[in-house]
Write a structure and sequence with these properties.
With 168 residues, this protein is mainly alpha-helical. The protein has one domain: dinb family like domain (Four Helix Bundle (Hemerythrin (Met), subunit A), Up-down Bundle), CATH 1.20.120.450. It is 53% helix and 10% strand. It contains six helices and three strands. A three-stranded mixed beta sheet has the order 1-2-3. α1 packs antiparallel against α4 and α2 runs antiparallel to α6. The radius of gyration is 17 Å and the shape is globular.
């Protein structure tokens, strides 16, 4: 079995769960945040929409400088609605699935670096980047969004079994 064949089912399952969470983003409450130091619902949802797009830069490049010398640091693009968030997410997931499916095992084994100002922050095989910085990172922020939903009386969707809002 190829690496792509082994990781695609996990990727598809986690992205389907993330989409269920994003489908509940409240258009009228994108600026809500739990604490002054926390990100807003809109920011977390927008970040979740962009994360699957990182598969493309991981498989097509060997590094990403999130704050290049003399340049602007990476920032999550603000989105103005649930629809914009879902469109971005769906586009990124579709592209990621195609790229993962087409990648040879050797590509997943290549080293990839995350840089800031030219300094290496992390260096991992590309497969580990996809697992950690795409899958696990999505799960992490999906959890944030579910807590935000609970605090705003927005029903939390089932992810790994029924949620309290979907039990009968």
């Amino acid at each position: 079995m190829s690496i792509a064949d082994s990781i695609l089912p996990e990727f598809e399952q986690e992205m389907a769960g993330t989409r269920r969470v994003l489908e509940r983003v409240p258009d009228d409450n994108l600026d809500w945040k739990v604490h002054e130091k926390s990100n807003t619902i809109g920011w977390v949802a927008g970040h979740l929409a962009e994360i699957p797009g990182w598969v493309e830069s991981t498989l097509k490049k060997d590094e990403w400088d999130i704050h290049p010398k003399g340049g602007e640091p990476h920032r999550t693009t603000p989105r103005n609605s649930r629809q914009e968030i879902l469109e971005e997410f769906d586009k990124n997931v579709a592209t990621a699935k195609k790229l993962i499916a087409a990648a040879p095992d050797e590509e997943f084994a290549k080293s990839w670096k995350l840089l800031a100002q030219g300094e290496t922050l992390i260096q991992l095989p590309k497969l580990a980047v996809i697992r950690t910085w795409v899958l696990n990172h999505s799960i992490h922020h999906r959890g944030h969004l579910c807590v935000y939903y609970r605090l705003n009386e927005i029903p939390v969707p089932a992810l790994y079994g029924p949620s309290a809002d979907e039990q009968q």
